[in-house]
Amino acid sequence: MIKEQVSPEEVGRWMRLRYRLKIGWREPTAAIGLFLVLLFGYLIVVPIASLLFDSVQVQFGDVRRAKADLGELTWYYFDRALFSPVSKILFWEPLRHTLSVSFGAILVSLSVGGVLAWLLSRTDMFGRRWFATALIVPYMLPSWTFALAWRTLFKNRTVGGQAGWFENMGWTPPDWLAYGQLPITIILALHYTPFVILLFGNALRRFDSQLEDSARILGAGPRTVAWQIILPLMLPALMSATVLIFAKCLGEFGVSYVLGLPVNYDVLATSLYRSIASRQTGVAAVLAGAIMLIGIVSLLIDARLVRESRKFVTVGGKGSMNRQTALGKFRMPATALAGLIFFLSVGLPLMTLLLSTIMQVPGQFALSNFTLDYWIGSNLETVGLSSGILLSSELWSAMWNTLRIVGFASICSGIMGILVGYVVVRSPIKGVSIFLRQVTFFPYLVPGIAFAAAYLSLFAVERGPIPALYGTAAILILALMADQMPYASRAGISAMMQLGKDPEEAAQVAGAGWFRRMVTIVIPIQKGALVAGVLLPFISGIRGLSLFVILAIPSTDVLTTFSLRLLDYNYTQAANAVVLMISAIAYFGTLAAQRLTKTNLADGLGG
Amino acid sequence: MPNITLKHVNKSYDKNATNAVSDLNLEIGDGEFMCLLGPSGCGKTTTLRMIAGLENLTGGEIAVGDRVIDSIGKGVFVPPEQRGMGLVFQSYALWPHLTIEKNTDFGLRLRKVPKAEREERVNLVMKKLGIEQYRDRYPSQLSGGQQQRVALARMLAVNPEVLLLDEPLSNLDARLRLEMRTELKRIHGEFGTTIVFVTHDQWEAMTLATSIAVMHDGTLQQVGTPNDIYDRPANRFVAEFVGSPPINIIDQSPGNSRITDASRQYLKEYFPAISGADSLGLRPENIKLASQISDVPADHFAEEAFVAAILPTGGSWIIEVMVDDHKLFLTVNEPPQVSVGQQVWFHTSPAFMHLFDSDDQRLTAADDVIAEFCAAGESCAPSAAKAS
Ligand SMILES: Nc1ncnc2c1ncn2[C@@H]1O[C@H](COP(=O)(O)OP(=O)(O)O)[C@@H](O)[C@H]1O
Ligand SMILES: [Mg+2]
């Protein structure tokens, strides 16, 4: 063997650099990477930074109160939001409400969802396949669908407009039942139960029955097995579900808005909304920052739990088995329980909404009381619209806005997702990969409403070459796109990871340049991922509310904000009709996405 | 295509990581079937990918003939798509969205070969590899062996002058593997292609290669013909890596055990001019057994042992003998005449001894002594007789 070392130092620095450049810039990957870094730096990092600055800088109109000049550093907003006499209303009460609602919802959905998950994955309950899909449906619908249904049923004289069904039937529900904590908790619980079913079901299905059998053979009774084998192994899924539901409840706006507002039951998201609506930018920034912080901390906890639980992943060995428990005489009651949950979380609310749109007097089941006027009538004497919802030009303009804005944003984020995936996997510069991976994931940690506040803070005024975007469709598209990037880029990265480098390198060795490889190899193979990367954000965007409620104005109304506006006019039938339409689009869109991508809806539904 | 030359090639994936390949010097001649052999993680794939241009160098230079295609010092880098080589991936990397025919056709299309010629070429290659009946199927509809042949066909279609293969047979079952080995050897003969073949399987390397490069921890250990590698391993690593069951090593530090002392005594007598032997290697097939000392040829190294186990392997036998608590393996091709627990004499000719120094390098001086034994009529390994 020849042993004459050439030390690296002997090679000229310049040549080394030339070699590097030659490799790095040979292909557009590096340029695209740089472009994406700048783009997402601007769309994600800058708005959040701007929001955080807002919380410590004197805002327009606060010069006198903050006793400092415009733009100067100040603790005024922190003081006001966290320590002043009004802080109780602005922050502490809403925080308490948020926490109690979230924990209530977590408790209920864990117990209900846990039982259902077990019934679905480990027993011989009737109709398991059907229930496995049916019980997930609430998660596909906008959460405030249920809030509207609740309000339709339980509304009392505290709020004007049409009476609730029960009231018309002669019983006036008390406020504590009609509005506030109890209904919000129940509705959030119903909405997130599918989430528990999915998470738990997955964990249970992966759980190897042989683990139980081994314990049994060693003499453990069913109770010991449950406590010492099953529970510890399920703990990570349990904790993970807890944290994720909490993070989602944190940004939950619609339900609290519909059911909390009449009795001034504020949660953090609605308090933030009020601050923005009353132009208290600085306080809003503090609130948004707080929501963001809580969200980030809880998701970091989750990330940690997931890492912990990885240790268990290999547990399911070769002969992994999943044996079913025979329910025996409980088979019928168990099925009835699942049916009841389905009825409460899907059937009842949707039926209520549907009926409310075809009944003249709420809650009166006489044939003469039914009408299609609210859908297709004209010359109606209602406060909101003078014609049926389907004949209203505002609906169609909202529909068109929704398709246009959400559609465009979804197409952009789908394409960006694949590009991010490509660059993350292929970039010759490691820093670019890491930055892109993390920055595109960041919006996931930030509840939508706080993210919207950040966009408002950055784009409300003209900055440099960027004009003021507030009130345009552009701000909605940008915000939606950034908000959906976590899902889009995760899908893109995992698709590119799964594809691996080999097929592309094989084409490269065969003589194909970059562009050619993209067109003939990468894009055709990733077609499915691309479709999923467009459809899934589209569905979650269409039922999204919190971004729009902050950033949309009447001329950029989308379906969700339109229905909320109708509700504000107390035109319940029309609001319900619009929500039904959104639900239908979300439901059938999910089915279509599932069919097209041959994936389980369980996997992609993050939003 | 002229020779491919690697000069002082270095590769580290991370600034602080140890080199995946260090100071690799290798020349691959035209028309050669070169096997890169070594345990997993020793840098074979990295080397292959650097030749293809898929991995960048950290130092050194790669040239084809006089033309430098990759060099940090000269700031030259020819991208993989312009190197005109063929690479078969360990995972096959067939394009899942293209049929077998389209997969095979891809490179020709890129080269803008006229349609008629393309069809002819694709048909020829597919026929040669026995995959023409699958032409309209997609890769996922083929078995592993068939996919492997498509991967090969795809590269052969463009008739590259160099074909790089990364453990192409490792995912196949034993029978198919044997078949494909023959196939590869035939292709090599028929197409005259230079082949660089990566494997961790010594039998594959032995049976296929015209030349083997053994690697370990990113460094080249030895380059030579299969016989060279087997009969004259350059160091202990090569000696122990090649051969199954592995070579028996007898430590030569004094006072270690009965077998050590006896072998030291023997070497002093038969290799008087050789000093510095740190270990002695004996290949299992070169060790014989005798039931009495009187049956052992006078010039053989012999020692009393007892038979610990006899393992039939179908057609041959592995026998494990113990000299006190030192274990030796030997192989025989006839049914063994001994039984477990029996006291026997193992013995071996001095012509089959491998001596290594304290740096584990081969003591080549001993080879000259061995050549003399051979000249004197001792039975010898073919390459041992023509010592340097
Ligand atoms: N992409 C990579 N990034 C970092 N380290 C790598 C990469 N590929 C290989 N290595 C490391 O380089 C060494 C040599 O790897 P490789 O060439 O794949 O070995 P072989 O093919 O001989 O099994 C190993 O230690 C491996 O961990
Ligand atoms: Mg390898």
UniProtKB/TrEMBL annotation, chain A:
Keywords: Cell inner membrane, Cell membrane, Membrane, Transmembrane, Transmembrane helix, Transport
Ranges of residues in domain ABC transmembrane type-1: 95-302, 399-593
Main location: membrane
Transmembrane among keywords: yes
SUPFAM superfamilies in the cross-refs: MetI-like
Keyword Secreted (UniProt): no
Similarity comment: Belongs to the binding-protein-dependent transport system permease family.
Protein name per Swiss-Prot or TrEMBL: ABC transporter permease
TrEMBL record, chain B:
Keyword match Nucleotide-binding: yes
Keyword annotations from UniProtKB, A to Z: ATP-binding, Nucleotide-binding, Transport
Listed Gene3D superfamilies: 2.40.50.100, Nucleic acid-binding proteins, P-loop containing nucleotide triphosphate hydrolases
SUPFAM superfamilies: MOP-like, P-loop containing nucleoside triphosphate hydrolases
One of the Pfam families matching this protein, by short name: ABC_tran
A GO MF term: ATP binding
Domain ABC transporter: 4-242
InterPro entries per the UniProt record, alphabetical: AAA+_ATPase, ABC_transporter-like_ATP-bd, ABC_transporter-like_CS, ABC_transpr_MalK/UgpC-like, Mo/tungstate-bd_C_term_dom, NA-bd_OB-fold, P-loop_NTPase, Transp-assoc_OB_typ2
Family that this chain belongs to: Belongs to the ABC transporter superfamily.
Protein name in the entry: ABC transporter ATP-binding protein
Organism (species): Parasedimentitalea denitrificans
